[in-house]
Amino acid sequence: DSDLSMRTLSTPSPALIFPPNSPGFQNGRGSSTSSSSVTGETVAMVHSPPPTRLTHPLIRLASKHQKEQANIDRLPDHSMIQIFSFLPTNQLCRCARVCRRWYNLAWDPRLWRTIRLTGETINVDRALRVLTRRLCQDTPNVCLMLETVIVSGCRRLTDRGLYTIAQCCPELRRLEVSGCYNISNEAVFDVVSLCPNLEHLDVSGCSKVTCISLTREASIKLSPLHGKQISIRYLDMTDCFVLEDEGLHTIAAHCTQLTHLYLRRCVRITDEGLRYLMIYCTSIKELSVSDCRFVSDFGMREIAKLESRLRYLSIAHCGRITDVGIRYIAKYCSKLRYLNARGCEGITDHGVEYLAKNCTKLKSLDIGKCPLVSDTGLEFLALNCFNLKRLSLKSCESITGQGLQIVAANCFDLQMLNVQDCEVSVDALRFVKRHCKRCIIEHTNPAFF
């Protein structure tokens, strides 16, 4: 009992995960943990475990009555663990304070493959330090069960928090720190160097991150054949505004196994950066360069080198891309399933024709705000892309109801159609609804409902 009591005392308080005045802490019971605020930070006061025996007769009777009403205590351990698996990290810590049985269940290793923390007010550095210390009790200094860490929108996550993860979690496979703008390159380098199994990395919105690479020390220790290889397959660098071609070159050289890469609003990327990317990363299946205004038809020629491996491409609002770039993609990437070309005003019916005739397995197409696309382009789509499920024509000024009717008469599996700000009649919309039973139509025609 003494050993179990000491283990109970070491339980991280929910106050370390969520401040007591946050919504996440106020929901539910917080009686097992008290806290006070010192210099703007939450200090947790961990109470001793509840007594095992109640001596007062009235209290004993009340306790017996409560036990009879507490049907949850009758559930077997595996059912309780299944219930706990749906709880976020802070709630799981709170459950560990209820009783001895819940403590043992809440710290079952199967429940700690993932840590998920969200919110601007959380002291994430402290929370990660406390949690990893507890998870490392059975295997000192190493947390072997933790595979996923998701920390989103936490401005109080710094390099120290990431360094804690890098030092204690060698089996980490997924890390998401989107919107945590206080982390820098050095912390990211530590994680990818000390977590060799990391496959999924999301640093979207981390404006200080300009590159992904191994630390210099890690490169020296590893063998020459594998010294520059990182096992990352999924990389999201959306809104990393300071990423430039040279940084993309370094990423490509180190992350040669990339299959999913998202560079949305990385406004400094040019065609040269895409050329570096295609030299090293030949297995990319999904690529987004949306809002990269310096990417042009020459960049499309480089992307086309992915050939049949490319399934998803987003070039939205890349104003320098025209029919020439679309022809490169259509000619070589015949297995393309998804294309987002919204706002590419240089695309015309000729580009859509070439795309429809060569990428016949296309399932989702967004050509909204392409004023030069008309009913002629829609006819080519309808006669070649029978598997089309999602089509966005928002703000396409040249589209009429006739083009929509041709699409609806041939693409029976259409599930989503966006014709907002298009001059289409109510009769045309009704025709689409009649032929495509499951289609959701987004429109701005008040007469159609």
From TrEMBL:
F-box domain: residues covered: 69-115
Q: Where is the signal peptide?
A: none
Q: Name one GO cellular component term.
A: centrosome
| Keywords on record | Cell cycle, Cell division, Cytoplasm, Cytoskeleton, Leucine-rich repeat, Mitosis, Repeat, Ubl conjugation pathway
Q: What does the record list as GO biological process?
A: cell division; protein polyubiquitination; SCF-dependent proteasomal ubiquitin-dependent protein catabolic process
* Major localisation: cytoplasm
Q: Which InterPro entries match?
A: F-box-like_dom_sf, F-box_dom, FBXL15_LRR, Leu-rich_rpt_Cys-con_subtyp, LRR_dom_sf
Q: Does the keyword Transmembrane helix apply?
A: no
Q: Please give the superkingdom of this protein's source.
A: Eukaryota
Return any one Pfam family short name.
DUF7885
Cellular location of this protein?
A: Cytoplasm, Cytoskeleton, Microtubule organizing center, Centrosome
The pathway entry for this protein reads as:
Protein modification; protein ubiquitination
- Cite the record's Polar residues compositional bias ranges: 1-13
Which residues lie within the region annotated Disordered?
1-38
Assembly information from the UniProt record: Part of the SCF (SKP1-CUL1-F-box) E3 ubiquitin-protein ligase complex SCF(FBXL7) composed of CUL1, SKP1, RBX1 and FBXL7. Interacts with AURKA; interaction takes place during mitosis but not in interphase. Interacts with BIRC5; this interaction allows BIRC5 to be polyubiquitinated by the SCF(FBXL7) E3 ubiquitin-protein ligase complex.
Role according to the record: Substrate recognition component of a SCF (SKP1-CUL1-F-box protein) E3 ubiquitin-protein ligase complex. During mitosis, it mediates the ubiquitination and subsequent proteasomal degradation of AURKA, causing mitotic arrest. It also regulates mitochondrial function by mediating the ubiquitination and proteasomal degradation of the apoptosis inhibitor BIRC5.
Q: Which family does it belong to?
A: Belongs to the FBXL7 family.
The name under which this protein is listed is: F-box/LRR-repeat protein 7
Organism listed in the record: Edolisoma coerulescens
